[in-house]
Amino acid sequence: MSTHAPPLSVRPVARPTGGRGRPATLPLALAESRRLLCSLPVLCGAIASAVLLLRADGGWLPALHLAAIGTQRSLLPLAAGTLVAANLTALRSRRARTGELETSTCTPAWRRTLAYLLALAAPALLGGVLAVLKLLLLVRGGRAAGTPDAFELLTGPAVIWLAGTLGVLAARWLPSVVTAPVLVVLAAVVQLGLPTKGVQSYGLALRWLVPAVPLEVSPTVEPELPAFLLGRPSGAHLAFLAAAALAVGAAAVAGAGTGARTRLRAGLAGAVALALVACAAQLQPPSRAEADRLVAAFQHPERFQACHRRGPVAYCAFPGYEPWIDVWAATVEGPLEHLPREVARPRLTVRQMFDDAALDRRLARSLGLPDSGNPGPVHLLGVVAAQDPAPDVVPVDMTWPTGPAERDARLALASRVAARAVMRPSPRGEEPPPRCQAPAVVALWLAASSTHGGKEALRQALVTNVALDAGLAPTPELLRASPAELQRITQHRSAISFDPHSGYPVLSWFDPGHEDEGEWGLEEANLAVQLLERPDAAVRAQLARHWDELTAPGTTRQELAHRLGLPPVPSLEELFTRRGATRAQAAAAARAARRQGC
Amino acid sequence: MTDPSPTAAPAAAVRADGIRVSFGRTHALDGVSLGLSPGVSGLLGPNGAGKTTLLRLLATVASPDAGRLEILGRDPASAEQRLAIRRRLGYMPQEPGFHRAFSAFEFVDYVAILKELTDRRTRHAEVRRVLELVGLSDQRHRRIRALSGGMRRRVALAQALLGDPELLVLDEPTAGLDPEQRLRFRQVISGLGADRVVLLSTHQTEDVAALCRHVVVLHRGRVRFTGSPRQLAGVAQGRVWRTGEPSPGARVSWRTGDGRFHNLGQAPPGATPVEPTLEDGYMLLIGDPTEAAA
Predict the structure, then answer these.
(1) Main-chain dihedrals φ then ψ at residue A533, nearest 5 degrees
(2) Given an 8 Å threshold on Cβ–Cβ distance, is A16 in contact with B164?
(3) What's the CA gap between B66 and B21, in Å, rounded?
(4) Which residue of chain B comes nearest to A98, CA vs CA?
(5) Residues of chain B neighbouring A18 (CB-CB closer than 8 A)
């Protein structure tokens, strides 16, 4: 700086507008929105939300209508960050003691507060962008099913906006820097506690009072259903959140003082009324018509599905799930192609179905029955038997795992297809016995040898299976597993248990909703693994030569071992004796097992 | 000295009549009446005289308990008219406060938005202009927390200069400024004072002498003097003299740089009066020099 500086221009470049000036609300909101986006709480929240979004729904093929719901919970850290940042923004003039200076300007406190509220659009938009990016990532994978519900997708940003308005309101009514963190903790308690404790006491509807309503709510997990059967009051919930944000915002503006008190009061009253109406709407249980449609979709999914025929197989999926047909077909075609040429390919229908447990939970809500009731509404209403699929129908579920668990899912589906190609169906309406004897070995070999990763899946099932029954010692893998790994193993892997009628050890794969489909004799699985050690072509040739004999219902596993040159198979009595049974017990168990066809 | 008759020129842009402001039992302003016309006016007074309270009233951030105030032809008691006043006002509080994480540019820009400079491009040009005026162009992107106290005062001054304020209210604007900065400040304010009302409160009588066409002296909530700087200096006419030794009759005296003593008070017979300064007049006016110098 120099005292000989050139003459300075004291004439202004810009002049404040005159008496009818353009209010600074929007420019201030723009400036504040940029500051909010660069603030530490919002940045941290955005990063945490991005991480959660990337990790959410991992391990399953995406269903976009469910993924859209999942984004709400993932955006909660951003909402918490926005609450804190908005609070700090609204407290800034107080903390920096610029209140007097700001008061002397032509932008009154209520306009500044309004600008803070409008600036919240930025983090809300950021949340929306993150959620959409998440869905685009899922779509980019090429196997995403379903269509996202716009209301569900907008709920996350609405929660962010609501959190921000709470931060501004707190700054106006409880001006302290500790208020926002306390509010975040309280909100976390409500968000996490109400769905668990509150739901247990007052019912599932109560969870709609929390901002982000997840699919998973303790003590129940809401079924993963097609979008048209979900029955979530997403529109009413979004309206509830928006009206709540309006009401909170109006209260914050009122706290800053304004001349337009009448209009503000009217706005506040309107927002509160809208929030109450929307809240009441979202708390309504699903209608009887919805329940009827749900039961109909459970019993007669074909009425809601479009089928696509590929060769001898028709693939029927609920609306939106068509992208998964390729996934199913890649597995289903394997066992059929591996059948000997002389054997006729069965005409099958691969049909997507949801399990009775899912129906139970949704029906319970519709009919006002307890969620954890036993027996549940499905059994009370006797709708299970009516769902029993025809023998040529291969059920597939509403979910499909990815990663290591996909191998097991492929094997489970392939084994169901192979069973229909090789074995006689059990009578409809009866609980099917475990699949045993020579035809089961053939079917298992067919499934495992024709499925990508099937051999390893079957071998691993026998080596590192899950001991559901106390009679089996936990495997080393289980002993080493962390709780999270244990959950993954028990959910995604295979299990060995005992046939409740005979005590015959059976092997099943994770196969939600189709547990009865997946039980295979353990000895048969051992024989199939032995066959898998041999070259596929050689086994296929042997099977082709003895197809009729080996797939005949009466052919035993001992006969199969003899025919295919496998080591002798112990008798049932010997098997049970090895497991510690007395001779008499072993004889009784063997008789029971034989009655089961094993 | 008694309160001379307050000036109330017909063209006064700011008019106060019988203004009273109390904080509990303390009367910060006690029946203040004055008028301010375009030009630079100085507000002098010891600490606690009520200067800041008066400036806050003129900046419309406080309201009087009694009395009538008219600013730029409008009544600040009316919300609508108060807004109109604020649109034509530049205010630099005594302790403006800063958003310390902002840069100088960001802070002034923020205030510019609050002043309804809504067009981004012209607003930024205006922000650059006022920062140039206060000599902060080179520092405009530094965070306020990293600026010295003097630089912060200049940031506060810059925001007050935004736009075209018809009334500029500056509370101790030169506090903490170095001599160069003060000269720069005088250059800016003298230019602005040509056609608008500038009221600056200060303890720096040199600034008042150098800049102001009009001076108001407040003491204990009352106006003790209004007039020109020459008139304020005239208060000490014949009551300032110099001696080689401390003069026993002086109310206050001090040794000057040339070794002689500068005396204020009732000059003894035979003393040779010297030309009084504005500071001499001010110190004699408020009676208690120690209080004035505080």
Answers:
(1) -70, -20
(2) yes
(3) 7
(4) B97
(5) 87
User: What's the predicted TM-score (pTM) here?
Assistant: 0.82
Instruction: Give the phi and the psi of residue A181 in degrees, each rounded to 5.
Output: -60, -40
- Residues 6 or more apart whose CB falls under 8 angstroms from that of A427 comprise none
**Dist CA A184 CA A163 (whole Å):** 9
Encode chain B (294 residues) as per-residue pLDDT tens digits.
434 444 444 457 899 999 999 998 889 999 999 999 999 999 999 988 999 999 999 999 999 999 999 999 999 999 889 999 999 999 999 888 898 889 999 999 999 999 999 899 999 999 999 999 888 999 999 999 999 988 999 999 999 999 879 999 999 988 888 888 888 888 888 888 888 899 999 988 889 998 999 999 999 999 999 999 999 999 888 889 988 888 887 888 888 888 888 999 888 887 788 899 999 999 888 875 443 333
In DSSP terms, A508 is beta-bridged to A495
What spatial distance separates the first Cα and last Cα of chain A, rounded to whole Å?
Answer: 100
- The answer to whether the Cβ–Cβ distance between B116 and A10 falls below 8 Å is no
**Other beta carbons within 10 Å of B235:** 21
The DSSP-derived string for A385-407 is: HHH---TTEEEE-S--B-THHHH
Closest residue, chain B, to A100 (C-alpha):
B61
DSSP H helical segments within A257-337, as ranges? 261-283, 288-299, 325-337
Beta bridge partners of A350: A315, A394
Residue B116 is nearest to which of A1, A17, A97, comparing CB atoms?
Answer: A17
Contact residues on chain A for B61, CB-CB shorter than 8 A: 100, 103-104
Q: What Å distances lie between residue B281 and B219, B231, B238, CA to CA?
A: 14, 8, 11
E-strand spans in chain B? 14-23, 26-36, 39-44, 66-71, 89-92, 167-171, 197-201, 214-219, 222-227, 240-243, 250-255, 261-265
Residue in B109, B118, B122 nearest the CB of A22: B118
Touching check for A94 and chain B: CB below 8 Å?
no
Q: How confident is the model at residue A573 (pLDDT cuts 50, 70, 90)?
A: confident
Q: Which of B118, B136, B164, B188 to mutate to test the interface with A (most CBs of A within 10 A)?
A: B118
Q: Do B99 and A98 touch (CB under 8 A)?
A: yes
DSSP A322: G
Q: Which residue has the tokens 């994770």?
A: A510
Q: Which of B40, B82, B102, B116 to mutate: most A Cβ within 10 Å?
A: B116
Closest alpha carbon to B203 in B2, B74, B31, B49: B49
**Beta-strand (E) ranges in A135-274?**
216-217, 220-221
In chain A, the residue whose alpha carbon lies closest to the alpha carbon of B111 is: A102
Burial class (CB in 10 A: 0-12, 13-18, 19+), A285: middle
Let me know: does B176 contact B107? Beta carbons within 8 Å.
no
Banded model confidence at residue A258, pLDDT cuts 50, 70, 90: low
Whole-number Å distance between alpha carbons of A223 and A210: 19
**Cβ of A104 under 8 Å from any chain B Cβ?**
yes
In the sheet with B240-243, reading across from the earlier edge strand, the strands are B240-243, B261-265, B250-255
CA distance B181 to B151: 9
Report ipTM (2 d.p.).
Answer: 0.84
Most confident of A154-168, A297-311, A401-415: A154-168
The model's pLDDT over B117-144, given as tens digits with 9 standing for 90+, comes to 989 999 999 999 999 988 899 999 999 9
Residues 6+ apart with CB under 8 A from A520: A415, A434, A435, A436, A440, A444, A506, A507, A508
Q: In chain B, where are the structural domains located?
A: 233-293
Separation between Cα atoms, residue A292 and residue A288, nearest integer Å:
6
Alpha carbon distance A192, A212 (integer Å): 10
Of B59, B114, B180, the CB nearest to A24: B114
